[in-house]
Structures are given as C-alpha cells and as structure tokens.
Amino acid sequence: MPAKFYVVKAGRKPGIYNSWDECLAQVRGYKGATFKSFPQLTEAQAWLNGSDTPSTSSSTVSSKPGKFYGVHKGHKPGVYTSWADAQNTIADFKGAVYKSFKTQAEAEAFSRDGHAQKRPSEEPSQTTPPAKKQKQDTDDLEDLVEHAAGEGPLPDGAEDGFDPRITLNPVTGKIEYKEATTKWQAVNLQDDKPVVIYTDGSSLGNGAHGAVAGVGVYFGPQDRRNLSEPLSGTRQTNQRAELTAIQRALEIAPRNRPVTIYTDSNYSIKCVTEWFVKWKANGWLNAARKPVENKDLIEKILNLIEQRKNMSQEISNKVEFVWVKGHATNEGNIAADELAVAGAREAREILANPDIEEP
C-alpha cells in the first residue's frame, strides 16, 4: 500500500494516484491545477467526491467553490458532487435532463421535479425552453436535452462552424458558455455538417533521454477551441503525442455532429481504424506476441468514437480520418504542427524551471 494517495481534482486527468510522479504528470503546466495528498484512501476518495475531509498535507494551486449536479433523467437520477460522476450517468442516455447548482437543496429539487426552483428575485428559470420552440408543456421535458457548451446545434448567424456563445476557460481548459445560463435545445435540432479538425503531435528529441512532447489541435483561424499543451505522462514520444491530439480533438468537438480529423500520422489512423481489430482479438498482443504500444490511448479514442455512435440512431455521428502530408502546404496541418511544437516547448520550459513541489 502506498504511503500517500495523491488526488488530482483539477488537472489533465482527475483521479487518485499512488505516486507523486504520476500526480505531477497531471498537474505540471496545467493552469488552475488543484491537488492534495492523503494518508488514507478513504480520505482521498472523499475529497475527490467533494467532501471537506481534513488533511494535514495539501497543496492547492487554485480552488473554486464546489458544485452540485442534479440529474432528473439519466441512467441513475440523483445529485452528484463531481461532473465526472454526473457525466457517467447521462452518457449515452437519450433525452438526459441535468443541471448544475451552487447548493445541494437546489440540485435535489431539480433531480426530483425536473425544473429549477425560482427564487423570489429571479427572472423566470432559464431551464424552460423558449415558447417559439416549445411543442409541449414547459414542465414536460421528455423530448428536451441540455447540451453542454460546444455540443448543441449552432445558433443562427454562426460562421465557419463556430458557436460564438462559447469560450475556452483558460483555467480548466474546458469549453464553457460565456454567460452563466443553461442552454436548452430540442433534440431534433441537429446539424449534420462535419466538424473539420487538424491534429498533430511533436516530440523534441524523440526517442532520446529527456525528450519532451506537445499536442496540437486546430479547428480554424483564431478559433477558441484551438489547443496547444504539453503531453502528459512520462513517455514523451511522437506517437503518443499524435494519438493524444486525436483524443483531445474528440473530447472537445461536439458529440452530436460528425467529425473529420486530418492528421499526418498514418500510424494513428491505422491504430484506430484497422489494426485494433486484430489486436483486440489477440488479447492486445501484436504480431510479435508482444503487448501493443500505446494501448491506453488507442482504447480511449475507440471509446470516444463508440460513444458518438451510440448517442443517436437518427444522426450519423461518425468519425472519419484523412491522412495529409506533414510539413507540406496544407494550412491546417501547418497550424496544428505549430500548436504541437509550442506545447512541446512549454514542456521543456517547465522541466527547466520546475515550480511545483510535492505536497
């Protein structure tokens, strides 16, 4: 049993880790990282789930007040204190109804009744759909779904496939609505136009000791969803950076629309479209009967693709991959490469000037 349990509440991959090195890989270079160490696993789990567990050792780069997530319709309706738990119960649930609140009482009321309680000083609840789009009583939410930021249909006047109502939170790295309001849309309002994304990975000193890698995801010129970040983990290879870029693109892109990903990594495309079939049949062993490299990332991408397929039987949410020659004349690929290189350089600067100490 490890001497300490390290909890990452805000980082590249929130969770509980058994070593400081694993924890550091998730928080180093992540703006707004929040993490603590605990001597007992039960304390670590409680803090991760939102409880205020006392701890003699902690380190918090930044903290935010907790939220309560009320799920009225999902696999398991109720109140959750972490978005990850709430997301698990609404994933792949058609017509899921959910909302975040600042207090547990409000979340419990929404979970029970399906609509937010209006305070005396409040305007009418934002959870009620506009009358012009409403085809049933406002309390009947059977055919309505709350879309997370970046996942709903594009509004009128949107240009280049970008929703002007959303922004990229520089602290959490997540897509959010600019206004703190709940956005509701009828589930039959969908846009079948594919989202075009360019991805790339870069490893400075690839294959050598001390190599650092970065990830680049490019949606378009000045698109707030464009991403440049260091590759997490201790294995800083070009292949892992390429695969991680695809993973991050699928996490950011709207899940209710088809996606076309352009990448110069033929290896990545083959991994998630062809080779994985035999690998899975062989127990994730390659032709040489050795464990498949980068299995963890490949499985994450396959799961994200499968989630899209299962979201709706009426809409094609398929993911297509297109190979493009790298370092050539394709503007999207060049932009993704620049973002990836910038992420790798950021990783190099972090290693040269470490400013995070073990809690």
TrEMBL record:
UniProt-listed Pfam families: Cauli_VI (PF01693), RNase_H (PF00075)
Lineage: superkingdom: Eukaryota
GO biological process: DNA replication, removal of RNA primer
Domain RNase H type-1: 191-345
Biased composition (Basic and acidic residues): 109-122
Protein name: Ribonuclease H
Enzyme class: hydrolase
Family stated for the protein in its record: Belongs to the RNase H family.
Keywords: Endonuclease, Hydrolase, Magnesium, Metal-binding, Nuclease
InterPro entries recorded: Ribosomal_bL9/RNase_H1_N, RNase_H, RNase_H1_euk, RNase_H1_N, RNase_H1_N_sf, RNaseH-like_sf, RNaseH_domain, RNaseH_sf
Source organism (scientific name): Aureobasidium pullulans
